[in-house]
Specification:
Blueprint: E1 4-8, H1 14-25, H2 27-30, H3 41-51, E2 57-64, E3 67-78, E4 83-90, H4 100-115, E5 120-126, H5 130-138, E6 142-144, E7 155-161, H6 162-177
Helix pairs in contact: 4-6
């Protein structure tokens, strides 16, 4: 779809697996992560190993025209309530601010609802992350109130449901792939 593709991180070459760690540890990405600590090589290897046969996480490397540019992932996949949280980043700075984040989000929504068959996608972002909040608003995510003690006044939780997808899929496709 528009020269974007998702490849499971376990299926890419080792050098790319480690490039993902460099992207994640870069200040430009790390500053927007809820857990912004620098990931060690050992932690990265343990995490990669934990992805094998893990039904609660999915992690893809995103390619644009065969060039790896970033990552998209699901975590806390819950098959009982058919929900998951998600996140993404564009690690290659030269590919930022080109509309690719919106295309990545559309593709993830398509994967999430049509292939994985979940029903509620959740995300938590820093309230100061106006770029992310603007994308979510354009995609019809709904801000939700939460009783979670981990959600502070500095964070915003948003959701997108299967009914949102059904209602907005065509217009989102037209907005981001037909222009």
């Amino acid at each position: 779809m528009n020269n974007l593709s998702f490849v499971n991180i376990l299926d890419v070459k080792d050098d790319l697996k480690f490039k993902v760690r460099l992207w994640r540890n870069s200040k430009d990405v790390r500053d927007y992560m809820l857990d912004g600590h620098i990931i060690t090589e050992e932690e990265h290897l343990q995490w990669l190993s934990s992805l094998k046969n893990n039904n609660r996480q999915k992690f893809w490397v995103v390619f644009f025209n065969e060039t790896p540019i970033g990552s998209v992932y699901l975590h806390n996949i819950n098959k009982q309530d058919l929900s998951s949280s998600w996140g993404f980043y564009i690690g290659e700075g030269s590919y930022r601010r080109k509309g690719l984040g919106k295309k990545m989000l559309f593709m993830l929504l398509q994967e999430f609802f049509e292939n994985i068959h979940l029903e509620t996608l959740k995300t938590i972002v820093y309230s100061s992350n106006s770029t992310a909040l603007a994308i979510y608003k354009k995609f019809y995510f709904t801000e939700v109130e939460t009783d979670e003690p981990d959600i502070s006044m500095n964070l915003t939780e948003l959701v997108f449901t299967i009914s949102d997808w059904t209602k907005h899929k065509e217009s989102l496709f037209n907005d981001y792939f037909c222009s």
